[in-house]
């Protein structure tokens, strides 16, 4: 090796003197990202979480039952609890310093390492409070403990004086922390009341034994200035509240709490709530020791494993072989879940604790949830059946997509190309076959179970199809929904349309019994009127008539189309005993397969309307179409509101 290389060629020498040791809280200010994941708005709000989590740990350990959070006009914030109070007696290892000062000015000082002072805690690294201190230009910590009140002030992690004696506090206990984030670190980012409000509220849901009081002097116009959160119903209430107004498969979420000590003899517990919706925008929010884990981890995995095994076992129990196809992916698509576990000495990935890594948590959560889920499914067979059907559909859909991908690769030139989402019927001859054009994928789900596979095909249409009136013909051809529809029907558009090409006898538009549904039906009718007129002339186009209400009285049941009809039955009675139970279907997706079949799809019991054109006044139909679908939305809306009926005739 040459001397040059040994001596180094650079202008500066690289030796022991260039190895720096950052002291005290300096590393935090130098590299905030390592401790709080950045210096952006999220990181700023994380400061509050660090202090709040300390108070929550006190509450969860059974030492506090009230936490107050006050956001002040100057952008500082106070978090107060009625817990044991941070210790402030002299620290044996740091002469002349109180425990309080050690906690706030030293990294890795904490009472949560050995599990002696706290059994299950969100805090574990012993850095939270000191990091907040380091990144605040002003911080005051007050402690009421042992009948005394003390306080100490800090700035950027450095004490601004000794621990001050503030006098006697015979009736108080707890820790009060006020801090103002340092603009040198966070620039112009400020606390957002709405964001704080939301995260504080969810904390209260996570531990029913705590009351959290919120106050803000900053008014953003939408967040309450004061509020008290206390949720004895825990996560089940949280989920119901989050999903208010959303259609769900089970009336009440599957929810529960299990104490690990009682069940497995180890400290900790788990609480959860889940429900499924026809919409595919499921979510999971998980927490460990009240710390949110947005990237999931072992507790989430354990939860899904329990649910998956439970669903499959239930499928086996009711002899539904298809349940074996369900995978975790299918559970997640429409599942909305909350999982919160409390465990001893959790291991997280990173200081911001985004993912739980403790392997044992997975095992404990799975074991606890599994038993409960089995019992719940067995006890509520209605919900269980609906959920199972829904999940099987999701699995079918996934497998079909996979197959489609494979076959479309294998057979580039298929003789008859059909759109992927068409659920075709098995009869190949046209006679007696029907194609349902169904609004929305979720309705497609129940319809698929309700149909007669031999003669009834389904094509789910997503959202509103292109308003074809006034659209250039190129645009019509390019619209995917329309292209799919033409492919399914086996026809071409406009002058190339041949009624004999139709692959089905009846084309049935099936939309929700509401204004939106009427709008979609109107769009489709307009499309057929302008592009496939002979289809209407030859009597192939129909409207399905889904009911709006189901009335039950004892064993008697009727489905009715509108309010007027409902009121007649309510007055007359159904012939059963007791109260008449009225349920309103918000949409097709809300009806189960049995209801949908009986009322809307089964040729033996359904009502169907044939769409015709008034021969005497064909001009008027054109006018009506123009009014409904032309460029004037007010006319259209008014017409639909008043009269969502069209030129139609009952099919008998
Ligand atoms: N509100 C409080 N009441 C009582 N003790 C507290 C409170 N806040 C902090 N402490 C004590 O101070 C210690 C240090 O807190 P700090 O936030 O620095 O770390 P931690 O909570 O142990 O871990 P983490 O770094 O994961 O947050 C805690 O372990 C606890 O013993």
TrEMBL record:
Record SMART domains: HATPase_c (SM00387), TOP2c (SM00433)
UniProt KW keywords: ATP-binding, DNA-binding, Isomerase, Magnesium, Metal-binding, Nucleotide-binding, Topoisomerase
CDD domains named among the record's database cross-references: HATPase_GyrB-like (cd16928), TopoII_Trans_DNA_gyrase (cd00822)
The protein's Enzyme Commission number: 5.6.2.2
Enzymatic reactions: ATP-dependent breakage, passage and rejoining of double-stranded DNA
Cofactors named for this entry: Mg(2+)
GO biological process: chromosome segregation; DNA topological change
Keyword ATP-binding: yes
InterPro entries for this protein: DNA_gyrase_B_C, HATPase_C_sf, HATPase_dom, Ribosomal_Su5_D2-typ_SF, Ribsml_uS5_D2-typ_fold_subgr, Topo_IIA, Topo_IIA-like_dom_sf, Topo_IIA_B_C
Subunit and partners: Heterotetramer composed of ParC and ParE.
Name of the protein in question: DNA topoisomerase 4 subunit B
Organism: Pseudooceanicola spongiae
